[in-house]
Design a protein that fits this description.
Helices cover 40% and strands 17% of the residues. It has 14 helices and twelve strands. The chain has a single domain, classed as Divalent-metal-dependent TIM barrel enzymes (TIM Barrel, Alpha-Beta Barrel), CATH 3.20.20.150. Bound molecules: manganese (II) ion (MN).
Length: 356
């Protein structure tokens, strides 16, 4: 298991590589070329510069999160092949720079969705939260404006202002895309990129939808065990894998995360591990990683990963904002560092308990 932290690059992140290097047991980062728009080719020079920067800080670049997918590919418009060719070129350039893990998602219009970026908890920390009643009362533009206004000046991942400036047009473009069509477009994309992934041993790790149900009448296809199995079987090759995100899958309390993990043996190259607290079936907030701070059993989750011989890349996911830190919501240093240590502690205990 390789413990990492997500890092957005020195131009965008308040957390430095030097700080990450001092978190015990964290050996690398998951990063991206944050300024790139979906559909653009990543050149070898750009990738090499990023990798050199990470390595010169004594860390390893363990994978990319994310190489985002252009809307034409998700919608299945006639120009999609041009964007798939660009994606293939990017994968080739990553492979030639010895990078073998790529996280992506196939959510229409929006990446992850929250109704609040800084809900105050009783201990004085703030967290990202989701309330279905709030979402039901606003339109997508209002949600975008509100998240943008509350992001502490940071650009939020997957919420590129350039792309979302045309929100109305995007919704129109997706109007005939239902679950089935979106799934077919994903399979089409995966089959096209399969040769380059296999040539360079690149593991593609799809991120589950967050939250794990449809919002704003947009289709959702990566929401739970059944859908994940369907996808694994549709393109049944190891390159086609999953980012096991406990917070996204766990947004639906009916998802049994340890069971999902066990059903995906060999297909989880990347794990995001965090905890959530459900306040009702329409409201949840992010919690500290510690089991007792939220609603999930983190020991059972780590044990399930251990049981399937998980040897991929893992990272603590969103953290709370604590100790007065100013950072991108969910991506401060302090609480994610606490989370990494806790997950490493669980892992060591599970390891040693199996040895005796
Ligand atoms: Mn995640």
């Amino acid at each position: 298991m390789k413990m990492t932290l997500r890092w957005y690059g020195s131009k965008y992140d308040s957390v430095t590589l030097e700080q990450i290097r001092q978190i015990p047991g964290v050996s690398g980062v998951i990063t991206t070329l944050y300024g790139k728009l979906p559909g653009e080719v990543w050149t070898r020079d750009e990738i090499k510069a990023l990798k050199d920067e990470v390595e010169s800080a004594g860390l390893k670049l363990e994978g990319i999160e994310s190489v985002n997918i252009h809307d034409s590919i998700k919608i299945g418009t006639p120009d999609r092949d041009k964007y798939i060719d660009n994606y293939i070129e990017t994968l080739k350039n990553l492979g030639e720079e010895d990078i073998h893990l790529v996280c992506y998602n196939f959510m229409p219009v929006f990446d992850w969705t929250r109704s609040e970026l800084a809900r105050l908890r009783s201990d004085g920390s703030t967290v990202l939260a989701y309330n279905q009643d709030v979402i039901d009362k606003i339109n997508p533009q209002e949600m975008f404006d509100s998240l943008n206004a509350n992001s502490n000046g940071f650009v939020m991942p997957g919420w590129e202002p350039e792309r979302l400036a045309k929100l109305k047009d995007l919704f129109i473009a997706y109007k005939d895309v239902d679950d089935e069509k979106l799934f077919d477009n994903l399979v089409y994309f995966l089959k096209k990129i399969q040769p380059v992934c296999e040539k360079y041993n690149i593991r593609m790790a799809i991120h589950p939808d967050d939250p794990a149900w449809p919002i704003f009448n947009l289709p959702r296809i990566v929401t739970g065990q059944e859908r994940l199995q369907k996808l694994m079987k549709a393109v049944d090759a190891p390159f086609n894998g999953v980012t096991l995100c406990t917070g996204s899958l766990g947004s639906n309390p009916k998802n049994n995360i340890p069971e999902i993990i066990r059903s995906l043996k060999g297909r989880i190259p990347f794990a995001h591990v965090r905890n959530l607290k459900y306040n009702s079936d329409r409201d949840f907030e992010e919690a500290a990683h510690l089991s007792s701070d939220g609603s999930m059993d983190m020991f059972e989750i780590m044990k399930a990963l251990h049981d399937i011989d998980f040897d991929g890349v893992i990272r603590p996911d969103h953290g709370r904002m604590i100790w007065g830190e100013q950072a991108m919501p969910g991506y401060g240093l302090y609480d994610r560092a606490l989370g990494a240590e806790y997950l490493l502690g669980l892992w060591e205990a599970i390891n040693k308990s199996k040895e005796v």
